[in-house]
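Reviewers of the previous submission asked for a worked example of the structure-prediction workflow described in the proposal, so we include one complete record here. The input consisted solely of the amino acid sequence. No template or homolog information was supplied to the procedure at any stage.
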Amino acid sequence: IQGGKVQFEQGKKDIESYLDVFAGTHPPLTVDFRRLAMEYYLYEQWGEALAEAGAKSQVVECNKEIQKVFMEFLNKHKNPEVQAQVAQIFSGRLRMDDGDAASMSPVIALIMATTKIDEARKLQGDVPLNARCDELRERVTKTRAAAIKILDGICKNDSQAAKAAKPQALWKLGVLYVNQLDNFKAMGAFRELARDYKDNENALDAAMNAVNIGAQLIQMCEERGQEVPWETREQYIESLQQLLTNWPNDKRAVEYHFDLA
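From that input alone, the workflow returned the following structure tokens.
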């Protein structure tokens, strides 16, 4: 193991040396992806060597490092298309399948959910879902439901790795619930992100999304001459309070002080 450790550490140094040169002629995204691929391969090989040597505790630590490598990339590059491409590239190597979603690491589960989301997007295309045939509409809905199940599992996981993945999981959940027309759950996911991760770069947008969804639901009832259900008003109030507690002076939020009053 000690000899392998020396080679492993040298491998990390070699990656840094290579990337220093590579970064001079390539854009940041390409450099970061190259880093992801090389570090993943290095940790994968080291993990397999440790497993053969029976060093179970070190294998666990190696797997945690692999998760960190992926999470660093996903946090830096949040463009859905970029994440989907990365998820597709690594899906085979990570041996992801629906039956294993509950037991896999939260970061790998996040990647798996991303593949499901992208699959649903491609199935639906640019046409509204209700304009698709029944069979295709069912496939899209089931694929999104599978992604929701995976993301919900991440959000209910209390491990340290899950905490790192949870902000992105909550954001993706909110968007999926909107796509599924489950507005109350969408508001809840966005509020949870804004409440528990208010320093996250998506937190303010999440809070605004929750408020906007509530406002639209109330407006729809009023335009139809229907009484607004108390549950809808309650959800809207909670969303307003969340927004105005954390961002009372933000230019997008100030107009909602009157609504809350």
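The radius of gyration is 22 Å. We consider this example representative of the routine output the project will generate in years two and three.
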